[in-house]
């Protein structure tokens, strides 16, 4: 071997050794973290449990059902803590996302990219768009959509006018629109006056599935949950849920119910008119700020997914319980945890 070549190779080995000793390998993942992840994955696959915040995660952590891994109870990476352990008979990895679609998407993508996961279960509380249900009920939607991606139509154009960039396939009028003039204070007898905000048209997400052609986009609005998971969820409906906080009880015992659709966006909906629009237009029940992001990531990664959302309030008020959401929020979170645990026990059996 040429002397110069030997010197270059020796230098490369020396540099790699130095980098490795300082934990700066595997891109953004340190060598020590990567070793932990590799050890964890050797014991997989796991169910991924995705939860929005500590208020919703604490009842699970305090239930006694979660048994942390004896050697590696957690891995911290990129601002997230991935808790390793068992729920019922299943090996699980629990991650808290934080508020919003962005945080939920990032946390779910990290979970699926770093760890050996066989399915994702998401749970939490949600606003309610269906006045037939009440606080404490746990909904299991069959489909989820991100309702915050819009094409805002210019004033003067209407439903028969093509949207900007519609001809390129970037936007569509197939899903439907919200006409602001329908909600003017002066609207009477179903006759609308003009509104400068005009119309917003709901748009599907661009997705790039792992089993598709790289960089060749597809579109989806209603993301389905896993069919097998949804079938199992039918058996969860018999679960008895809590209905009281101390001596204050709900008018009826909460129930678990499979529903058709849930809606997510980076909007906290506390408006009766918009709640009624979402229910009438899309037949939506649960309204939240994370689930559709989790669903979209799982759909693109071809990963089984389902979500359980306990209703904490009737969005925008209008019921006798509309001002009591603070009283029953902890109950709603606990009911979501109870449904999660029951689903896992049925899945394991």
- Taking the alpha carbons of the first and last residues, their distance comes to 62 Å
Rg over CA atoms, rounded to whole Å, is 24 Å
Strand-pairing-aware structural class: alpha/beta
Spell the H/E element sequence. Answer: HHEHEEEEHEEEEEEEEHEEEHEHEH
Please indicate the percent range of residues in DSSP E strands (runs of 2 or more): 25-35%
Number of strands: 18
Mean pLDDT: 91
How would you describe what is shown here?
This protein is of the alpha/beta class and 349 residues long. It is built from eight helices and 18 strands. A five-stranded mixed β-barrel has the order 6-17-16-7-18, surrounded by five helices. Strand 3 and strand 4 (80-87) form a beta hairpin. Helix 3 crosses helix 8, helix 4 packs parallel to helix 7 and helix 5 packs across helix 8 (325-348). The longest helix is centred in the C-terminal third of the chain and has 24 residues, at 325-348. The protein is globular. It starts with a helix and ends with a helix. Mean pLDDT is 91; it is low at 3-26.
């Amino acid at each position: 071997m040429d002397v110069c070549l030997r010197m270059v190779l020796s230098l490369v080995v020396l540099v790699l050794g130095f980098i490795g000793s300082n934990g700066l390998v595997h891109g953004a993942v340190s060598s020590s973290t990567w070793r932990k992840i590799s050890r964890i994955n050797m014991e997989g696959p796991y169910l991924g449990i995705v939860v929005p915040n500590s208020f919703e995660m604490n009842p699970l952590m305090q239930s006694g059902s979660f048994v942390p891994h004896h050697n590696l109870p957690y891995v911290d990476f990129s601002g997230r803590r991935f808790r390793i352990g068992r729920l019922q008979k299943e090996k699980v990895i629990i991650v808290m996302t934080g508020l919003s679609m962005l945080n939920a998407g990032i946390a779910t993508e990290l979970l699926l990219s770093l760890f050996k996961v066989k399915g994702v279960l998401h749970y939490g509380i949600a606003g309610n768009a269906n006045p037939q249900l009440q606080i404490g009920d746990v909904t299991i939607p069959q489909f989820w959509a991100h309702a915050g991606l819009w094409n805002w139509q210019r004033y003067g154009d209407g439903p028969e006018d093509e949207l900007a960039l519609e001809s390129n396939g970037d936007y569509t009028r197939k899903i439907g629109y919200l006409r602001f003039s329908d909600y003017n204070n002066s609207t009477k007898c179903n006759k609308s006056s003009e509104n400068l905000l005009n119309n917003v048209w709901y748009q599907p997400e661009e997705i790039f599935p792992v089993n598709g052609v790289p960089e060749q986009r597809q579109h989806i609005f209603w993301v389905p949950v896993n069919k097998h998971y949804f079938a199992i969820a039918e058996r969860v409906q018999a679960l008895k849920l809590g209905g009281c906080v101390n001596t204050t009880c709900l008018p009826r015992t909460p129930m678990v119910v499979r529903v058709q659709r849930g809606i997510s966006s980076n909007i906290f909906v506390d408006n009766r008119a918009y709640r009624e629009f979402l229910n009438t237009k899309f037949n939506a029940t649960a309204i939240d700020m994370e689930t559709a992001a989790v669903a979209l990531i799982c759909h693109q990664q071809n990963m089984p997914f389902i979500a359980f959302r306990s209703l904490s309030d009737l969005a925008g008020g209008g019921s006798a319980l509309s001002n009591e959401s603070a009283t029953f929020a902890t109950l709603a979170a606990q009911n979501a945890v109870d449904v999660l645990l029951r689903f896992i026990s049925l899945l394991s059996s």
